[in-house]
Amino acid sequence: MTSQSDDGKQAFDIAIIGGGIAGITLAIALINRGIKVNIYEQAHAFGEIGAGVAFSPNATQAMEICSDGIYQGFEKVATKNQWESKEKVWFDIVDGYHHDESMGNQEKFLFQLSNELGQNAVHRAHFLDEMVKLVPEGVSHFRKHLDFVTEEESGKLRMKFHDGSEVVADAVIGCDGIKSRVRQLILGEDDPASQPQYTHKYAYRGLIPVTTATEALGEENAVNAKLHMGPNKHILTFPVNKGETMNVVAFCTNSDPWPDSRHLTLPSKKSTAIKEFEGWGRNCVEIMNLLEDNLDCWAIFDLGDHPLRTYYKGRIVLSGDAAHATTPHHGAGAGFCIEDSAVMAELLAAAAAIVNAGKASKNQVLESTFAAFEAARKERTQWLVQNSRLNGDLYEWRAEGYGSDIEKIEKELRESNAIIWNVDVRKMAKEAVEDLEKRIA
Question: Are 173 and 319 in contact, with CB atoms under 8 Å apart?
C-alpha cells in the first residue's frame, strides 16, 4: 500500500504506542479519516500471541465504524460453528464434570447462549495479517521500546525510545497492552494500577485437528462451541481455521502465586493438564489426552485489583488493554479494544474539524478529546474487567452467592452478555462527539 498523504492539511500528528489489535485498528481508522498517524511497536514485526479470539455483535459494529476493510478482513478469517443449526450459538454450556456412562460422548446440556452472529472465532495472528495489509508504508516503526514522553516548549510531545531515537507528535495514544509503559507514565511507576495483577487462574491452550476430535468426541462436540463447566476449572472448545481445527482453552484456579511475574506464559506438559482434570467427565478427560505433549500454560492477569483512576493525562491517553486489560471469561476483551478504536477515531475526526475551523487551539482540543473518550469508555470497560472475573468463577461453580446453582448462573450470564452485545456503538461514538463539542464550547 502507498504511504499516507502528508499534504499539510492534517490537523495533527498522532503517535500510537503498540501494534496489536488495539493499535492497528485505531491506526487504520485514523488514516481513513485523513489523520496523520505513526505506530511505534517494540517487537521486530507485527504479531499477536495466543490462538483463537471471538468477536460478538458489538465488536463487528465497531469494525465497520473503523473501516470496511477491517470488517472484511475479519469475515475472511472468521470461523463459525460448523452445524447450520448452531449458527447463532455463542456457546452451548454443558456439565463437563459429572458423567453418565449411558450418555456416551454426550455431556449434560445446561443452557445455551446465543446472539445474532453466533460464534465467530479468528486466529489472532491471521486477523492481524489481514489488518496489516491496510496499513500504508511508512506508518509502522519497529523495535521501538518507549522510555519517556516529555513536553517541549513548542507544545509537541517528545518520545524517547530505548534505542536512543526520538520523535515528536501532538498526542500519544498508548495501545501497548497489559504491560503498558504509557500507563506507567500516566499514573506513575509506583501506582499499583501501573502493573497487572494475577487472578489465580491459568490456562492450558492447545489445538486439535478436527478429524481427531470428531473421532474421539463425536462431530457435534468437535465442530461447535462448547463451554464445559465444573468445580474450580472449566474448558472452552470451539472451531478455528475454517473448521479444520478445534481450539482448546482449559482454565484452572488455585491460590498459589504465579511463579514468574516476568513471564505470563510458561512451558508445560500434557501430562500435567491430564492430572489437573482427573476425575472429570469422559469428554474433558479425552480432550486433555488429545493435546500435544508440549503445551504452554498461560497465567491470567488483568487490571482488576486496582482499577485505573484515569485513562489520560494531558495529551497522553490509554486505549485497549493498556487501559482495561481483562480476563478472557467474557470473550470480549479484543472486541472492547475495537470499540475504543471506533470511538477514538470518531472523536479525533471531530477534533480535527474543530481545529481546522479555528474554533480552538490544537492542544486544548486534544486534551478535551481524551477527556470525552474517558467519559464515554471508562465505566463500560471497567465494568467488563470486574464482570469478566465474576464469569470465570461462575463457570467454575465458585462465585459467592451462585455456587453450582445453574438457574442463577444462567440468569447472570444472560444479563451480562446482553450488556456487551446489545449496544449501539455508533450512538456511543456520536454521544462522545457531542460531549467533546460541549467541552470546547
Answer: yes
